[in-house]
Amino acid sequence: MNSLLGILTAVSTVVLVYMTTWFILALILRRRDIVDSAWGIGFIVVAITAFLQRNNESTFTVIALALVTLWGLRLFLHITARNWKKKEDYRYAQLGELNSVRFWAKTYTNVFLLQGVLMVAISLPVIGIMYASSDPIVLIAVAGAIIWLFGIIFEAIGDYQLRQFISAGKKGVMDQGLWKYTRHPNYFGEVTAWWGAALIALSFGVWWGILGAVVITILITKISGIPLLEKRYENDKIYQAYAAKTPKLIPRIVK
After folding, report:
1. Is residue 124 a part of any domain in this protein?
2. Which structural domain range is residue 236 located in?
């Protein structure tokens, strides 16, 4: 039986190598926002590493690996297509030019290594599923898988609708489709997906699996997700009118 420390060590080592490779690529291309493309694939790397050291042969380990792969690959393709042939994302450009060893080190630690640590932390439900040695409570595991898949689909639809809105050259605020019911359907879908993963981990009796869902929820709602976007439009009267009638995260039927 593989110990939790052994699995975490293997995962952390692989993530360190993975993120360092992307950092070197960022230096070559001179753009740090490629870390956003690395994000989705990184979770697949974590899941595969943990899967290869799994302690059980439950079907839900395969389901978990498949769902992480679906989520991560879609996110990679979406972000890479969005950023293709565009200038570096303003969030990274404002950090300064990559023109000195000091800025290289800052980028490596504050961007790539930090996201690597978050990647491992958010993946705790998946790691827990692979680490468990007991059988899951099937009904709870099935419910978790359904919620996980629902979150992935919800996020994908939200991203697709926004992409269509932008590609059509429309102006103003996107307030159609899922965006009519929540200002951030993509973030709602992502949070939902990871709580579904946490529920599967709980079905195996791995209570600490929920920590990953807690981390992604806090990250999106309090730190780097919604707060950054909301701040960007805090002086936009049209957006504020939209915000006044549309929930921030959890969808509801708007009259």
Report:
1. yes
2. 4-245
Name the DSSP class of 108.
I
Cβ–Cβ < 8 Å for 35, 88: no
Within a domain: 250 = no
* Residue labelled with tokens 């009638």: 245
**Structure tokens that stand for 86 in this block:** 């565009």
- Contact between 123 and 200 under an 8 Å Cβ cutoff? The reply is no
* Domain count within the chain: 1
- For residue 48, what are its two tokens? 């595969």
Is residue 125 within 8 A of residue 47, CB to CB? The reply is: no
Contacts of 151 by beta carbon, 8 Å cutoff, 6+ apart: 188, 189, 190, 191, 192, 193, 194, 195, 196
Four-CA torsion 181, 185, 187, 189, nearest 10 degrees: 110
User: pLDDT tens digits, the chain, 255 residues: what are they?
Assistant: 899 999 999 999 999 999 999 999 988 888 888 899 999 999 999 999 999 999 999 999 999 999 999 999 999 999 999 887 777 656 665 666 666 666 778 889 989 999 999 999 999 999 999 999 999 999 999 999 999 999 999 999 999 999 999 888 888 899 999 999 999 999 999 999 999 999 999 999 999 999 999 999 999 999 988 998 899 888 889 999 999 999 999 998 755
* Rounded CA separation 107/98 (Å): 8
Cα distance between residue 183 and residue 181, in whole Å = 7
